[in-house]
Design brief:
Elements: H1 2-8, H2 23-35, H3 41-50, H4 52-55, H5 68-77, H6 80-93, E1 103-110, E2 125-131, E3 136-142, H7 148-157, E4 165-167, H8 175-183, E5 187-192, H9 197-209, E6 215-222, E7 225-235, H10 239-242, E8 250-260, E9 263-273, H11 279-289, H12 291-302, H13 316-333, H14 340-349, H15 351-359
Helix pairs in contact: 1-2, 2-3, 2-13, 3-5, 5-13, 6-13, 7-8, 14-15
Length: 362
């Protein structure tokens, strides 16, 4: 666990030179508290007081446990970009290296209650790169001034994505994102929607003009719902050059039909592809993309109550959002049986379980 403290020594302490508590020790307590279910700075301080004897096995704590005001000051003033870089080093310590054709899903998530007074419609956001194979967050970056696209591009530019397949929502279907992915030695699967009217029109035409294209079909049945998906992939021809869309090699389409309680819904989605994937591959990639919603965003809200967090001042929301993602990574790295929520409960109830989880970090 001493390696964890060493990671934090490279962070610049934003507090005055006469601060009593060491920054690495404060952040170590914060991580341990988050694993044990602490939702904010007050609970971090309470955790430290209850677990002081345990923490002193690792930390020196010459001035005791930091107060909740100290935790708050640190997270409000700590540089989120620097904390994000430390996050990436921790992610790498869990063996989350991206393999060839691994899906890396990029998506933003709003922290619904983390907004400035009178600006409820503009909550803070965090963009995340989710490794579908590792089932962990690979990188995260705060969204500045609502520019999710720029945050995602900066995040990917600082992540080794060579060989990966980058997916996102329609917001990320743009030339800058495509160029970032191609320059990083990766491929992309990006949904085309209303933000690319001309490309959408040509994509429909390409699919419509294809004569007997190869297709792939899947069918899932669960809880009375039957969902069928059919994928088609065709060569893009000169669309990449015509629309100045870097790396565009193919157009994909997925038709989805959902039937439940005698009600049938149908959807058609088009995709810009940097490689002519087989239709079955496109279905796989799209399915794995949704892991960022089902295995990350859902867990953040249901297990760690992210949407209920009232932290809203300065850098606090951004830094605590990254702390929560780090806590989930640590819990996921634990190989014992049980749900994610169950592992976090064990960390709160059992000192040995907590120490074991923290020892996974290198």
């Amino acid at each position: 666990m001493l390696q964890v403290l060493e990671h934090f020594t490279v962070l610049e302490d934003p507090r005055a030179a006469n601060a009593r508590h060491e920054l690495p020790e404060i952040l170590f307590i914060a991580i341990a508290a988050a694993l044990a279910g602490a939702k904010g700075c007050v609970e971090m301080a309470e955790f430290g007081e209850v677990k002081e004897a345990l923490l002193r096995q690792v930390l020196e704590l010459p001035h005791g446990i930091p107060s909740h005001d100290t935790f708050s000051t640190v997270f409000r003033t700590l540089d989120p970009a620097a904390f994000a870089r430390i996050f990436a080093t921790f992610a790498a310590s869990f063996g989350t290296a991206i393999g060839k054709d691994d899906v890396v899903a990029v998506d933003g998530k709003a922290m619904k209650r983390a907004y400035e007074k009178g600006k409820q419609s503009a909550p803070r956001m965090m963009v995340t790169a989710w490794g579908a194979a590792a089932r962990m967050t690979l990188a995260a970056r705060p969204v500045v001034k609502g520019d999710e696209t720029n945050a995602a591009i900066e995040m990917l530019a600082n992540l080794d994505i060579k060989g990966a397949i980058i997916t996102g929502d329609a917001l990320h279907c743009n030339r800058r994102m495509a160029r970032t992915v191609i320059d990083g030695g990766a491929d992309y699967v990006l949904p085309i929607k209303g933000n690319q009217d001309a490309l959408m029109s040509d994509a429909r035409a390409k699919i419509g003009a294809a004569k007997k294209p190869s297709t792939s079909k899947t069918e899932d049945a669960d809880h009375g719902r039957i969902e069928t998906r059919r994928a088609v992939v065709v060569a893009a021809g000169n669309l990449g050059g015509h629309h100045e869309f870097p790396g565009l090699k193919a157009i994909g389409m997925i038709e989805s039909t959902r039937s439940m309680d005698r009600k049938v819904q149908s959807f058609v989605h088009y995709f810009a592809l940097s490689r002519r994937f087989k239709p079955a591959e496109l279905l796989r990639i799209k399915r794995e993309h949704w892991g960022i919603e089902n295995r990350l965003h859902w867990q953040l809200d249901v297990v760690l109550d992210e949407d209920l967090s009232r932290t809203r001042k300065d850098n606090g929301p951004d830094n605590l959002a990254m702390l929560r993602r780090l806590a989930l990574n640590i819990a996921r790295a634990d190989k014992t049986k049980g749900s994610l929520a169950g592992k976090l409960r064990k960390a709160a109830w059992n000192d040995d379980a907590l120490i074991k989880m923290l020892s996974q970090m290198r």
